[in-house]
Amino acid sequence: MDEAKRMEEGINSPHNGGGDSIEHDNNDTMKGESVHQPKEPDGKHKTKRVATLDAFRGLTIVLMILVDDAGEAYPRIDHSPWNGCTLADFVMPFFLFIVGVAIALALKRIPKVKVAVKKIILRTLKLLFWGLLLQGGYSHAPDDLSYGIDMKFIRWCGILQRIALVYCVVALIETFTIKLRPTTLSPGYLSIFTSYRWQWFGGFVAFVIYMVTTFSLYVPDWSFVDYNSSELKRYTVICGMRGHLGPACNAVGYVDRQIWRVNHLYSQPVWNRLKACTFSSPAEGHLRKDAPNWCRAPFEPEGLLSTISAILSGTIGIHYGHVLIHFKGHSERLKQWLSMGFVLFILGIILHFTDAIPINKQLYSISYVCFTAGAAGIVFSIFYILIDVWGLRTPFLFLEWIGMNAMLVFVMAAQGLFAAFVNGWYYKDPNNSLVHWIQNHVFINVWHSERLGTLLYVIFAEITFWGVVAGILHKLQIYWKL
């Protein structure tokens, strides 16, 4: 069997029926992908599903639930108000990283490019739809039982929208360059990079667009109306500068205000937890009397310019997928993955602590891309060693199960739709529902601590619960695919 044939058969997923089906990155590949593992003692190649992909995806979902629902009680794990990186700030780049890895495996063989493009566009539109529905303001889950959104204030951007756009760009580049994929690599460490030069060229173009726009675009003064206050008042932010990386006058916010308009941006940005805005920093609190006007302003953390930068996270992820395809030995894969992961991680730290480009999730700065992509590569490698090399799969099964049904757990748990459904059945008062009763009486009152009770509720009543549900659905072969 020649190398090309082995490569095609070795990466066929046991769930997709062959090379012509295109599995969706974040949710449609949630049942795992298979690649050639190193040779067995008898000299035969063993085709085996790489469980690390599902476990890593499950870890990302678990982190999202933890920081979203326990972040208010523990502000240190919530998103950094501006510069810096907390546990919550790893969620988005981890998502995009595993999106890239899955794309490399899913788009392994494309008989008809037009069919592939059609499927990519369709799945992109589905993700955009769900993103608008869940994060555009229509859904008020889990505590507010009302629904609907004034189209004057609909939020056009969000987590799924960013994943959709990054997926679309990275997958299309992979599709249109698939015939350039080599069957064998030339000698040398850099051969994996040169063989996929067009994917890296796409990432480089995104890098140039982001950097040039960020540091050269002139940001004028701007104004907004604070709709979060009972007294509607217009505020003005004085800028008149370029290359600014602070909250008020950066190019990322300016681009979004010009394209989406200020009313369609996220109305409660995390920067209002800065010391300049509240004495409760890093927790939320009342605004200081001397707080700058921008503390009240909306800002889009998943905006257009920062999404262009986020394409780099997907590009780095797809590189890890290419390594998985071409390198058959565990040590060869880990050498490639860990070296790149540590280089990116250290580069991000250097850029941040030299004040060249601070690590900033809200701006999706280049140092943030390097730091978080490096961390993703290192964590992915550690998971690979533990799960696929050492065979310690049992301790990570609940992460695998969640990763296999990532979309379901994201919608029901991370976006609170299941909790909202349960809250809809209450007695006399909306706060007297099963969810609130469990949270208060089983966790908070027992431990006599709202912070600890909230954390335990998230760990057991949300993460563990959905891990069990995902496991049952896996046994029944039930998966939610877009």
TrEMBL record:
Pfam families named among the record's database cross-references: HGSNAT_cat
Domain of life: Eukaryota
Heparan-alpha-glucosaminide N-acetyltransferase catalytic domain location: 49-186
Annotated stretches, region: Disordered: 1-48
UniProtKB keywords: Membrane, Transmembrane, Transmembrane helix
Biased composition (Basic and acidic residues): 21-44
Keyword Membrane on entry: yes
Spans through the membrane: 50-67, 87-108, 120-141, 153-177, 198-219, 304-325, 337-354, 366-387, 408-427, 455-473
Official protein name in the record: Heparan-alpha-glucosaminide N-acetyltransferase-like
Gene: LOC101499049
